[in-house]
Amino acid sequence: MMRAGMGALIASALLLGGSAGIAAQRQGAQASPIYGVRLPKGYRDWALISVAREKGRNNDIRAILGNAIAVKAFREGRRPFPDGAIIVRLAWRYEPSARNDAVFPTPQSFVAGAPINVQVSVKDTKRYADSGGWGYGQFEGGLPNPDRALVESCFACHNKLAAIEPGADLVFTDYSP
Amino acid sequence: MMRAGMGALIASALLLGGSAGIAAQRQGAQASPIYGVRLPKGYRDWALISVAREKGRNNDIRAILGNAIAVKAFREGRRPFPDGAIIVRLAWRYEPSARNDAVFPTPQSFVAGAPINVQVSVKDTKRYADSGGWGYGQFEGGLPNPDRALVESCFACHNKLAAIEPGADLVFTDYSP
Fold first, then answer.
1. According to the lineage, what is the superkingdom (chains A, B) (predicted)?
2. I need a surface site. Which of A10, A78, A96, B154 has the fewest CB within 10 A?
3. Predicted local confidence at residue A15, as pLDDT
4. What would the mean pLDDT of A10-30 be, rounded to a whole number?
5. Does pLDDT of A12 surpass 70?
6. Residue A149 maps to which CATH number?
7. Residue percentage of chain B with pLDDT more than 70
8. Residues A48-91: pLDDT tens digits?
9. Quick check: A162 and A131 in contact, CB under 8 A?
């Protein structure tokens, strides 16, 4: 299992190797275009904010983690988020588990498959004044996706939330106790 | 948001209050029947092992967290788990998000709703020698469910995994990188 997970991660990294990933690595680019957001050290140990699923083209299951500043703000219901808050969204393929379903009364178990990508949102009202105070990055196999248009779409999408729920500070996720 | 989440938690606690919850509290029972498993302090800050979803009657979305011993074993692919490993599974109602879908191109967003319950597995090969080395408990609104039959069903179900994947040490979840 662990081995399968690591295999998928390595496979993703190798796939990336053929295109954008190696290019980013060659350029020494460890940060996202536009915002210069990096994959935060130790983020995989951060506390859970919530879980979610996207159907449709994404067809993923996801977890949203936060650093201490972000988690504190979520738990206190504090909006806007203070500077220094970092939210990390991990997405994996949404897959039925034949093994688990062999135990359950009906086919009902869906689990996280291969990792898809990790998206990072960093709150810094000064540095990111032009994008609602948030800087964005998307990472695959540990490397930033260098596609400027993709990274531009982060703010474009999050900013749509401002019209629907102005108090959300452009964050889709609510804390799950 | 936070307020809604807390409201749901309080509502769950109040609902429980009418039946088993208060009874358990009155008896001072903070631990599960049979195994005496308690809700571990600080578990909500533990690292994420993976996420999953159960369709059917459960209709939930879930996160699996682990203490440091469990997470280390998961990451190293170590089985059986060492004594002291604790795995905590949190489940929430699986709900479409009309708010998020208003932003996305098609209805596709599902999020965690009200909390359902928290299940705890504790590895202790001596104490729990009769149940494959694992002790179990289920908690609602922070209180242990006192139903012996329900808690007996934990091992009955996990033990079915032994025939399908003997090396899994009765654990359904794999680590998601």
1. Bacteria
2. A10
3. 44
4. 49
5. no
6. 3.50.70.20
7. 84
8. 999 999 999 999 999 999 999 999 999 999 999 999 999 999 99
9. no
Of the partner residues B71, B112, B160, the one whose CB lies closest to the CB of residue A103: B160
Domain that holds residue A64: 2-168
B-proximal residues of A, 65-104, CB under 8 Å: 65, 71, 74-77, 90, 92, 94, 97, 99-100, 102-104
Of B136, B39, B52, B80, nearest to A113 (Cα)?
B52
pLDDT (0 to 100) of residue A29: 79
The minimal CB distance from A48 to the residues B3, B63, B107 is found for B63
**Residues of chain B positioned with their CB less than 8 A from the CB of A64:** none
> Is residue A173, in this structure, part of any structural domain at all?
no
* Whole-number pLDDT of residue B29: 79
> What sign for the dihedral angle of Cα B135, B140, B145, B151?
negative
Residue B176: inside a domain, yes or no?
no
Q: How far apart are CA B83 and CA B86, in angstroms?
A: 9
Domain count, chain B: 1
Those of residues 1-20 in A touching chain B at CB distance below 8 A are 1-6, 8-9
Residue A177 lies in a domain: no
AA identity, residue A96: P
What's the burial of A138, exposed, middle or buried (CB within 10 Å: 0-12/13-18/19+)? Answer: buried
Provide mean pLDDT across the span A132-142: 98
**pLDDT the model gives residue B8:** 46
Chain A, nearest residue to B73 by Cα: A2
Can you tell me the distance from the alpha carbon of A18 to that of B54, in angstroms, rounded to the nearest whole number?
36
The pLDDT tens digits for B67-103 are 999 999 999 999 999 999 999 999 999 999 999 999 9
The answer to whether B122 and B134 have CB atoms below 8 angstroms apart is yes
Q: What distance, in Å, lies between the first and last C-alpha atoms of chain A?
A: 29
B54 CB neighbours in chain A (<8 A) are 104, 108-110
| Inter-chain CB proximity A108 and B47 less than 8 Å | no
What's the rounded mean pLDDT across residues B129-145?
98
